[in-house]
Amino acid sequence: MKIIDTHCDALYKLQIAKRGKQSLPLTFRNSDELDTNFNRLKRGNHFAQFFALFLEPDIPSYEKWGYLMEQIDLFHSEVLAKNPEMVHIKKWDDFNHLEDGQIGAVLALEGADAFGNDLIKLRQLYREGVLYIGLTWNNANLCADGAGEPRGGGLTLLGKEVVQLNNENKVFTDVSHSTVKGFWDILELSEYPIASHSNVRALCDHPRNLYDNQIEAMFKKNGLIHVVFNPPFLKKDSETATITDVIQHIDYLCSLGGVKQIGFGSDFDGIFYYVDQLENAAHYENLINELLKHYKEEEVRGFAYQNFLNNRPGCS
Predict the structure, then answer these.
(1) CA pair distance 243, 229, nearest whole angstrom
(2) In the chain, how many domains are there?
(3) Are 212 and 257 in contact (CB under 8 A)?
(4) Is 197 in contact with 267 (CB distance < 8 Å)?
(5) Cβ(52)–Cβ(79) under 8 Å?
(6) Are 123 and 61 in contact (CB under 8 A)?
(7) Measured between alpha carbons, how far is 7 from 175 in angstroms, rounded to an integer?
(8) InterPro entries of this UniProt entry (predicted)?
(9) Residue 131 sits in which domain range?
């Protein structure tokens, strides 16, 4: 069954290796250190993979745009140029033109820190094909507070302007790292909300997960929630988890009316702990096979890729 995964941090790992913080360089084609290398995407039957642009918060502000551009360059030089089967998805209609054997590669932004208050830079990211934008990672920036910011504030005027620009460009606004107040600010303004990698707070009380009223509001607004495979987001204070734990979150989301708005956002290459038998992108079949024991094939196909395609901007 085809897979669309809306979040991985392979570009961040490639950048760390390039900058010499690792003993050997990484090759996107087959480096074992990459959970989402090409060979694993192929074995996992991926239809498309979203690649997050993520910057560590301690990078000086004046260097952040350069770091971001370097990751985009790695996307072009390491992911696309060296792997002709990887096809750059720059607009939503491009999904319709993927051929057998091809895998869509999509850019996403995790945190607005790199463009600061420079909307010319934001427009450049739209032109690069960034198709969802999360205003924050866990820290605060000029657009909003992140999920780890004790203040817990919402969107600034700049942040609200960015959401409006996302709407105009038919780009998702990602709520996965938002504060509770930031979430509601985004949901009020966004025409295309997504939680690219979040779980259920009622099952695992973690700031990165969503409360029931948030989940219900997302589904009411036709938003997507993509389940993340990070054990601490599946079981509170746990470094281990099973596929059964993942399915419990899917079950709960379905009970709140989300059977047609659920997907997967693994967070591979951005996590340190793994779900048993779901340790990298090649192992998706284990999850799909288990889901088929609980759900109709049409519903599982929805979780795997069809819900995303049905609810992408311009298609709902």
Answers:
(1) 9
(2) 1
(3) no
(4) yes
(5) no
(6) no
(7) 13
(8) Metal_Hydrolase, Pept_M19
(9) 3-311
C-alpha separations of 85 from 10, 42, 80, 90, 174 in Å: 17, 10, 8, 16, 28
Residue 316 placed within a domain: no
Whether the CA torsion 47, 282, 82, 24 is positive or negative: it is: positive
Tell me the per-residue pLDDT of 142-166, one tens digit each, with 9 for 90 and over.
999 999 999 999 999 999 999 999 9
Phi, psi for residue 315 in degrees, rounded to 5: -115, 0
Dihedral of alpha carbons 286, 288, 292, 295, sign: positive
| Contact between 215 and 221 (Cβ < 8 Å) | no
DSSP lists the bridge partners of residue 5 as 49, 264
Digit-coded pLDDT (tens) for 12-54:
999 999 988 665 679 999 999 999 999 999 999 999 999 999 9
Q: How far is CA 149 from the centre of its chain?
A: 20
Cβ atoms within 10 A of the Cβ of 120, count? 7
CATH number at residue 101: 3.20.20.140
* Dihedral sign for Cα atoms in the order 59, 156, 197, 103: negative
Amino acid at position 143, single letter: C
Compute the residue count for the chain: 316
CB atoms within 10 A of CB 121: 15
